[in-house]
Design brief:
alpha/beta; 17% strand
């Protein structure tokens, strides 16, 4: 009958171990770091970017969450014992690129390396966002970013409807909604956040009701006013990302000016007949709205929902894509549409991509 020391000695003989310095290099190279400590230990302090799969449930959870047996994995615990056993277990399960961090989190912290205290999710939050928590690209750290995020939504109409609902479903902590209109029966063909029974109600009130009905944990702040030069900075200030569902050119330009001034990224979307467009204007990294269009009466007319017809489902597609881009910006994952314009042709069901150049970079910098 083996003792723990004998089991650990055999495990260490069968695996590769690395020091904390090499672990830091591997993290920069994209290795996945699995912390096998218990949740209570993990919550007291952890290595940024790590995922918490406790040693006792590792075999149960790993295959469903990380199915690719060629994934580059580092295991870490407090000092290196449990992580060595975990690495041996992963090798037995067929994972071919696994190392254990000798010295563990204790040595990492004692060396003054970067640490953070993970946000502790409630049991209800763990249940609600379970499908996010099992995605390595999100996990508890990413979900905490979403819960702390503040997103401003301009417009509670066709684009704003799917954006508001999916941002709320994702767990965005604070959602600001700007719209001074009322729910109209003729708009329900595309403004799916509102119902037949909301006709005549203020859009921001209907939006708040829909969002909190889906996720009561979201703090909804409503602005039942028109976006103007004298209020846009006060409204935008403090938000992390703006989702632009505005339906007039003047609003786009007001937003563009304040975005550049405050350095807040804007996820832009527009629809016309059977065509939708999505891009990200990040004044710190790429082109802005002024690089996309020039002011003209024709453009102003084309951007006005009251004058241009649109296939009802199209704003749903574009608004959902805007939400996707906003979530990527918050989480810091993927390749956001900065400097790229994505155009969707609904009749052909095709996407085209165009490069956007920063003609007005002097205004940004």
């Amino acid at each position: 009958m083996s003792t723990f020391s004998e089991m650990l000695r055999r495990a260490k003989a069968d695996i590769d171990e690395i020091g904390t310095s090499q672990a830091a290099e591997f993290l920069d190279e994209g290795w996945l770091l699995i912390d096998v400590r218990e949740p209570g230990e993990y919550q007291l302090g952890a290595i940024p970017g790590s995922l918490n799969f406790p040693r006792g449930t590792l075999e149960v959870n790993i295959e469903g969450n990380i199915p690719d047996r060629k994934t580059r994995i580092m295991t870490v615990c407090n000092s290196g014992g449990r992580s060595a056993l975990a690495a041996a277990t992963l090798q037995e399960l067929g994972y071919t690129r696994v190392v254990s961090v000798d010295g563990g989190f204790q040595q990492w912290r004692d060396e003054g390396r970067s640490c953070y205290k993970p946000r502790v999710l409630t049991s209800d939050q763990c249940n609600r966002y379970a499908r996010h928590l099992t995605l390595p690209e999100i996990g508890e750290e990413g979900q905490a970013k979403l819960l702390d995020a503040e997103v401003l939504l301009l417009g509670a109409g066709g684009l704003g409807s799917p954006a508001a609902l999916y941002l709320a479903a994702a767990g965005v902590g604070k959602l600001g909604v700007v719209d001074m209109g009322s729910v109209d029966l003729s708009n329900l063909q595309r403004q799916v956040m509102h119902s037949h029974y909301d006709v005549g109600e203020r859009k921001v009130d209907s939006a708040e009701k829909a969002v909190t009905g889906l996720n009561p944990g979201v703090d909804v702040v409503t602005y039942d006013i028109r976006l103007q030069a004298d209020n846009v900075a006060d409204i935008v200030s403090g938000y992390d990302v703006i989702v632009d569902g505005c339906n007039n050119l003047e609003g786009h330009y007001l937003l563009d000016d304040v975005s550049v001034r405050l350095g807040v990224p804007v996820v832009h979307g527009s629809v016309r007949r059977f065509e939708g467009r999505v891009t990200v204007f990040d004044p710190c990294k790429g082109p802005t709205f002024r690089d996309l269009v020039s002011i003209s009466s024709q453009n102003a007319q084309d951007d006005d929902y009251s004058k241009v017809c649109v296939l009802g489902v199209l704003p749903g597609i574009v608004g959902t894509l805007q939400t996707l881009e906003a979530l990527k910006l918050i989480l810091g994952i993927g390749d956001p549409l900065v400097g790229r314009l994505l155009v969707f042709d609904a009749l052909k069901a095709t996407f085209s991509e165009f490069e956007l150049l920063s003609e007005n970079r002097n205004d940004v910098e």
